[in-house]
Amino acid sequence: MSIRVRTAHTADLTPAELDAVRGLLDAAFEGDFGEEDWDHGLGGMHALVHDGSGLAAHGAVVMRRVRHRGRWLRTGYVENVAVRADARRTGLGGLVMAELERVVDRAYDLGALSASDDGARLYTSRGWRLWSGRVHALSPRDGIVRMPDEEGSTYVRTVPAGSLDPGQELLFDWRDGDVL
After folding, report:
1. Residues 157-169: pLDDT tens digits?
2. How far, CA to CA in Å, does 97 sit from each of 37, 59, 72, 129, 151?
3. Do the beta carbons of residue 95 and residue 52 sit within 8 Å?
4. Is the pTM of this model over 0.85?
């Protein structure tokens, strides 16, 4: 079976490709994938893996801002990673992540993502580290708010910004829906 990996910006995906990605995500998240989740993965780079049956895996990396130790870092935030049910545990998630990590490593100060328990195994196997410090977000109404539910599921990948200090918070920019 032939596997084809493609990276493309949202602007370069056709409406049919975007529909296929949305269908894959809806199926993979079994109805727990809403409009705000979809929106969070648009406007950045996408990694798409096709096999003989069509779109088999997808992930995106979008730019976010994260403040750490008083410095705002350009952060490549990984979103919308999914593998078609019949293609899981075949290495396609790793192919997606390799492409997204290439983008993060070359274009951002930091990589970050929020992982499910199932997804965490993939990320840790690739060198992503569970963030052991506090996680906050900058709310347009309430200012800085702590996000304790994200403190056990936020993973980071350090790049040129150097090492992070878990004694200092990560402060994420705000977005509608699930902030992280």
Report:
1. 986 656 788 999 9
2. 19, 7, 24, 14, 22
3. no
4. yes
Structure tokens at 116: 């499910």
> d(Cα 32, Cα 60) in Å, to the nearest integer?
18
pLDDT at 102 over 60: yes
- H runs (alpha helix) in 6-161: 15-28, 35-40, 92-107, 117-125
Q: Which two tokens stand for residue 143?
A: 């200012």
CA–CA–CA angle 94, 98, 59 (5° rounding):
75
The phi, psi pair for 125, rounded to 5°, reads -65, -20
Distance CA 101, CA 96 (A): 9
Q: What are phi and psi of 77, to 5 degrees?
A: -100, 120
Name the 3-class secondary structure at 148. helix
